[in-house]
Amino acid sequence: MGGGTNGNGGGAASAMDVYLPRTQGDVDDDGKERRTGTVWTATAHIITAVIGSGVLSLAWAMAQLGWVAGPITLLLFAAITFYTCGLLSDCYRVGDPATGKRNYTYTDAVKSYLGGWHVWFCGFCQYVNMFGTGIGYTITASISAAAINKSNCYHWRGHGTDCSQNTSAYIIGFGVLQALFCQLPNFHQLWWLSIIAAVMSFSYAAIAVGLSLAQTIMDPLGRTTLTGTVVGVDVDATQKVWLTFQALGNVAFAYSYAIILIEIQDTLRSSPPENATMRRATAAGISTTTGFYLLCGCLGYSAFGNAAPGNILTGFGFYEPYWLVDVANACIVVHLVGGFQVFCQPLFAAVEGGVARRCPGLLGGGAGRASGVNVFRLVWRTAFVAVITLLAILMPFFNSILGILGSIAFWPLTVFFPVEMYIRQRQLPRFSAKWVALQSLSLVCFLVTVAACAASIQGVLDSLKTYVPFKTRS
């Protein structure tokens, strides 16, 4: 991980690491192993991070928002994310964008520009969300794996058959797989996994779009309206409010990649300047994913109407062709294997970097140092995955969990910190026109975040009323 590790052992880069003699051209300006990332690898990381489980809930979100507010909401979140990620990419280096001091992590950038309580708040938001995203991805992957068996069951035994699956076994299987992949030392070694995951995300999104289009043309399964679900018909007034806010949280989750932007940027080669490359990658990644989001959300809504399932590929609006539904869900599982790593590797780096600084004796030195780091990494990362796996079994609530994660990440990490760092970087006068505009944007996004978080928590509480631990069936 570029933020707190090097390629040699997974711990924080120490003074010895930086000043070790190396052949000229083998290292970057900070003494670390030369970075080789390009706009294409960065775009792959972005698509891997952005087109995740969030895309599967967009038809449901559109059903809550309707034809007017739904597409507008998607486009607004895309525009806000693109703009604020541009501000954030300029914070990778302090001072000159080509030669200034590097910030290896999001928290490093906040420390360089803001300092004080902002650093603690940023670390809390970032790492809690990375942890939560691991839970969300584990839940989603297990539901998709279970859907493969359900699809085959429905095909061979009929659509009226009880083909529900206990998801706990699938969650455990996904956890075992992640425990193995988590032993990859750092983020730089994930480029191949991100490319595979990006291809998978394109594949299942394209299948969802194709199936939705076919269903829309042949026989739409429900009616659509300009304002989404109808009070008194589909939901009552209170449910309409809560579900609308929860839908906003789901859309926010679909765009929450700023959380790892600095870490992705730290994989890029230094020429051209990293911020320029990152802006190009962000433009390519956000525009591509927004196109898919609009297609998935709008076509999914047109196919299923106000009764659109929470997860378009596992809610079984689609039964046939069953083999294509199987392929789509298999692609989701493969993609989320990579997505889990993209989100969790920065957290691994932060913990291991802290251990390297505070307990150097634990890691040893020389040959023992390498084995020490590996032993520590093996134990702590495996324990981390085990905790996530247990919590995923205990909280298998797809849409509500996505809404909570989206609301936690969106305002502080996508809007608040980039805006505050930009104001400090450019030294904007207080109450100037641009200062007021940026603070107004931050305030509006904060209110959306609070509403979405409250609605999603309410959704979890409602689900808990009928929930039996370890016996959840999908």
Automatic annotation (TrEMBL):
GO terms for biological process: amino acid transport. Keywords: Amino-acid transport, Cell membrane, Membrane, Symport, Transmembrane, Transmembrane helix, Transport. It is found in: Cell membrane. Pfam families: Aa_trans (PF01490). GO terms for molecular function: symporter activity. Residues 35-460 form the Amino acid transporter transmembrane domain. Signal peptide: none annotated. It comes from the Eukaryota. The chain crosses the membrane at residues 39-61, 67-88, 190-214, 241-262, 283-303, 323-348, 378-398, 404-423, 435-457. GO terms for cellular component: plasma membrane. InterPro entries: AA_transpt_TM (IPR013057). Coiled coil: none annotated. The keyword Metal-binding does not apply. It is a multi-pass membrane protein. Belongs to the amino acid/polyamine transporter 2 family. Amino acid/auxin permease (AAAP) (TC 2.A.18.2) subfamily. This is Amino acid transporter transmembrane domain-containing protein. It comes from Oryza glaberrima.
